[in-house]
Automatic annotation (TrEMBL):
One of its GO terms (cellular component) is plasma membrane. This is UPF0114 protein MTUNDRAET4_2684. Keywords: Cell membrane, Membrane, Transmembrane, Transmembrane helix. Belongs to the UPF0114 family. It comes from Methylocella tundrae.
């Protein structure tokens, strides 16, 4: 390999650090989501005593929705950093949760789609809990259809990952 090729290769691999500002932006987004969660939690606590049971459940579902979205952002941040910027040495961080490190592309796809399906399911439950004010059946059908599309996509990807893992194992 000549000097020019090595220089180009070095440039390409060094460009991975350009991901860092994107990940920092996601951290800022996570902080913003924390702010929204705190505001919703505050409103929820204030209305808790007088709200009907269905509104309490919708309030809880909305807090769950924000929590799942925060989990999704955190998974993307940690996985992207480890897979594209710099590997993480587990020995240096024994207290870090296993779910945030050593996430391969297959695992990342499943975690992302799993989170998206859960978030969408929470939205569907919110609709059902407050069905009186959401009388638009066409919109509800779209929400349920999107949930089913995500669930089917997740299932297909899981099957494809399992099949490709089986083929790789047979090849070795």
């Amino acid at each position: 390999m000549n000097r020019f090729e090595r220089g180009i290769e070095g440039l390409f691999f060094s460009s991975r650090w350009l991901m860092a500002p994107f990940l920092l932006g996601l951290v800022v987004g996570l902080v913003g989501l924390l702010y929204k969660f705190g505001a919703k939690l505050f409103d929820f606590i204030l209305l808790l005593k007088t709200a009907p049971e269905s509104e309490v459940i919708v309030g809880i579902l909305s807090l769950i929705d924000l929590s799942l979205t925060a989990n999704l952002i955190l998974i993307v941040i940690c996985s992207s950093y480890e897979n594209f910027v710099r590997p993480i040495n587990i020995a240096d961080h024994p207290e870090w949760p296993d779910g945030l490190i050593r996430i391969g592309f297959s695992g990342l796809k499943q975690k992302l789609l799993g989170s998206i399906v859960a978030i969408t399911a929470v939205h569907v439950l919110e609709w059902f809990m407050d069905i009186e004010s959401h009388a638009e059946t066409q919109k509800l059908a779209w929400v349920v259809g999107i949930l089913l599309a995500f669930a089917v996509t997740m299932l297909i990807l899981a099957i494809a990952d399992r099949v490709s893992a089986g083929v790789e194992n047979k090849g070795h």
